[in-house]
Amino acid sequence: MVRTTLLSKLACFVLLLIFCLPLVPNAAGAPADWVPDWQPAPQGDWWITQPAPEVSSYFYDSIPYWEIAPTLHEIELTSDRVKVEVVGQSAEGRDLFLVTVAKPDALNNLGHYRTLRHFMVTDPAKAQGMLDQFKDFKVPFYIQGSIHGDEYPGVDACLELIKTLAYSNDPEVLQILDNVIFLVNPVANPDGRVNGVRENGNGFDLNRDYITLSQPETRASVRVLRDWMPMVVLDLHGFSYPMLIEPCTPPHNPNYEYDLYIKWALGQAESMKASLYEHTGFPADIPFQDYKQGWDDWPPIFAPMYAMYHGAYGHTLETPDLGLPGVQAHYWAVWGALDFVVANRMGMIYDQMEILKRGVLGLPQQPIPQEILGQTKYKQYQMYEKFPEAYVIPAAPALQASPIDAAYLVDFLLFHGIEVEKAKASFTIAGVSYPSGTYVVRMQQALRGLANVILSDGWDISYYPGLVMYDISAWSNPLLWGVSRVVVWDPLAVQTLGISHADLVLGVLVSSGSAGFAYLPTSSEAVRATNDLLQRGIPLLRTTAEFVDLGRTYGVGTFVIPATVPGAATYASEIASRYGITVCGLSKVPRSTQDLKMPNIAVDAGGDLLFVLRDLGFTYDVVPWWQLNGGFDLSLYDVYVSQNWWSPWDYLTDFGKATLESFVDDGGNFVGIGWGGIDLAVQAGFADVSFKAGGWYDNGIVHINYAPGDLIAAQYTAQSYAFVAFPVWFTKYGKDMKVSASLSSDDFFVAGYWPHRNPAAGHPVILWKTTGDSNVVLMGIDPTFRAHPMLTYRLVANALYLN
Question: Does residue 142 form part of some domain?
């Protein structure tokens, strides 16, 4: 169909949200962990639980996780204001709940309220003029408890708030329920609560995952935020004295409509602060008013910041006490926000619609009001975004290094509620022809800020005066996922069709040869396919030099299934179909190959590296430094991987050092990632190199020159990208070291925060060597950082495949 009007395009976006259709992921191209989580969570008899051991709070009698489900079920049975749903499962399989509290008439007609809310989004300008007709409209107000599992009070505060609103007939409670539909994710991190740790069962800080969505808990949270578009989002944390109540310090991400957000968020914070002090005596700080730097809302990785892209007034609350007073602090702070909504609901609704209207109509951003700036103690500078017309994501293999990853990105955008279209006919941009089926993401849509924050390169904020960042400063899903996309600034006249999921990426088997079958290591799916075969004991080869066969050129690292393997053709057809890759028959097996086997891996790290290894199909054992001191036998392993931001060498005894040294002397491989892993290799004498490191908070996206023909950089494009955090670069190295990747000599920094980076320009960041039967690989980038830079996962796989 021809490009429709802006408002009818927004209507398409709204209808997707209203009916909450489960999005079906690509059958090929999405990690298996995503598939069940896109579907509605099974309900069953979720309230039937058994007592189980867990780590409770040391400071008060916190409710154990196993009691939460029956407690919620009892409230649901005894209050006509409460509905409880299971909206997902944690990494370790524990239920995640959404509790809805509303007056019975509203609770029995939630579909109407969601439809009515999204009707207001359909035509924001018209809806703004009709506010008098919506005075009885109840706005969704969302809170979630303890996304960090060992910050216990948030969960208990959520339960106390649910009970009050479920049972009390106090006039203030009834007035609140006249104005809001109260949505609660009472235990956002069940694994962390049970295990008494910050992270979930996969070792992830969930409040850093909202722009990656690698974890089931954050996907469940985003599903609620997408479907309800709550007006207020409060995330209950700990611990800070005085209590900390956002909004934040600068820099403020330029994709927000910050003037509209801060207009209400600041007043809401002051209401929370006043309620807190009145009922508990605890003071509170509001970073926007009270801090100079260091508590920013720049990255979209945090739950409240992510929610702001859906038009929400989002706040993180850091309770001041580890015990019951901390529970009460959260309770009364949330109560202050509820009171503020009761008093200001109509104005807040109006401006939330204004945020969406700016996106639909392509209206410019506006400055923070001077009357608000006058309330702050420190300079609040504001950055503005010039939004492009659109982003174009090619689907054709000739224009996309990995069509699988492109489809993955499209499904990712759709999961967030971002509108994606598909070209019905070919079109041309800057002399390049794009065929029908090419994906188009226009910026004139309600969630333009979220679309742009995902698809843009990001921003270099290294030189803003006096800047102190709280967390990472860069991300870019296309650059760090290895997806080509084109930024379009001029009007784009192309016929498009709205879509609900990416096209299926079909694998191809070209069986023209009889000597074997080859496929390229250009995607994570190729690695998964390889490990699938290796786990089944199927012999494979990996090429060590480029070769040409039947008119096709195959680079270093190509995987080969020899025809001498019984059932080779069946296996080739199977992986092409299952993993969406191209497998080609060979007329002859190349000479320069290595036998490939599944490596036995010992690793001293946790969290994201282990998650990525599992995701790619590797198996491993965790062998931390202290086990080496105890005489652990490493002879059973092929490779030892060390990834740390500190050096384990300082903690090894002489016996532990000798254990590691003997492992490498006897032919074991070593992979050192990050400062600690590299320092361990240098201290142990595995590599004669000198290196330097950036600062602890230096991080960002960098241009990388990958070495053609290198086994670690196998078939990466010569100029590509990587992510660095606490970056390391090599200044001296022997002739025995091979350079796999270097920072570009020119301005290599794309986005992020790294003020004193110039000395690193042009230097290698990945080195490796072979000595006898051992290989030593050193990586100064972070190839698996929080499971975000999927483009560089293959570097780890390539290092593990060395033999």
Answer: yes
Q: What are phi and psi of 320, to 5 degrees?
A: -90, -10
One domain for residues 782 and 741: yes
Longest dimension (CA), the chain: 83
Phi, psi of 541 (to 5 degrees): -120, 155
How far is the C-alpha of 594 from the C-alpha of 768, rounded, in Å? 17
Q: Is 617 helix (H, G, I), strand (E, B) or coil?
A: coil
Q: Closest Cα partner for 472 from 235, 293, 308, 298?
A: 298
Structure tokens at 539: 């012999």
- Any idea which residue has 């490498």 for tokens? 664
Matching residue, tokens 């092409």: 576
Beta strand spans in 432-521 (E):
432-434, 439-442, 486-488, 496-498, 508-510, 516-519
Report which residue type is found at 565: V
pLDDT exceeds cutoff 90 at 23: no
Long-range residue pairs from 73-76, CB within 8 A, at least 24 positions apart, any chain:
73/46, 73/47, 75/162, 75/163, 75/166
Amino acid at 546: E
- Exposed (0-12), middle (13-18) or buried (19+): which is 68, by Cβ within 10 Å? buried
Residues 485 and 405 in one domain: yes
pLDDT at 296: 96
Give pLDDT, residue 427: 96
- Distance separating alpha carbons of residues 646 and 675, to the nearest angstrom: 7
Amino acid, single-letter form, for residue 652: L
Both 516 and 443 in one domain: the answer is: no
**CATH number, domain at 610?**
3.40.50.880
Residues 766, 781 contacting (CB under 8 angstroms): yes
Banded pLDDT at 193 (limits 50, 70, 90): very high
Specify the residue for token string 């690695």: 527
What is the CB-side half-sphere exposure of residue 174 using CA atoms within 13 A?
3
In 107-255, beta strands by DSSP E: 139-145, 180-185, 232-238, 243-245, 249-252
Say whether both 305 and 451 belong to one domain. Answer: no
The pTM score is 0.94
Examine the pLDDT at 36 and tell me if it is beyond 70.
no
Residue 512's pLDDT band (cuts 50, 70, 90): confident
Give the Cα separation of 39 and 203 in Å (integer).
Answer: 24
Question: Within 13 Å of residue 793, how many CA atoms lie on the same side as its CB?
Answer: 30
Distance of CA 586 to CAs 559, 560, 741, Å?
A: 12, 9, 30
**332, 279 Cβ separation under 8 angstroms:** yes
On whether residue 516 sits in a domain, the answer given is: yes
- Residue pLDDT, tens place only, 217-254: 999 999 999 989 999 999 999 999 999 999 999 999 99
Report whether 201 contacts 189 (CB < 8 A): no
Residue in 332, 245, 323 with CA at minimum distance from that of residue 281: 332
In a domain? residue 51: no
CB 664 within 8 A of CB 684: yes
The answer to whether the CB of 501 falls within 8 A of the CB of 414 is yes
**Three-class DSSP category at 487:** strand
Cβ-based neighbours of 504, under 8 Å, separated by 6 or more? 26, 27, 28, 407, 580
Contact 268, 337 (CB under 8 A): yes
User: Residue 542: which domain range?
Assistant: 508-596
How many domains does the structure of the chain reveal?
4
> Where is the domain boundary, 453, 486, 504?
504
| pLDDT given at position 25 | 32
Rounded alpha-carbon distances, angstroms, from residue 764 to 47, 339, 742, 743: 56, 57, 4, 6
What is the structure's pLDDT at 16?
Answer: 31
> Strand pairing of 427-429 and 496-498?
unpaired
Pairing relationship of beta strands 774-779 and 669-673 according to DSSP bridges: parallel
In the block, which residue shows the tokens 């959520």? 158
- Token digits of residue 1: 């169909």
In a domain, 353, yes or no: yes
Burial of residue 378 (CB within 10 Å: 0-12, 13-18, 19+) is: middle
**Distance between CA 284 and CA 244 in Å, rounded?**
6
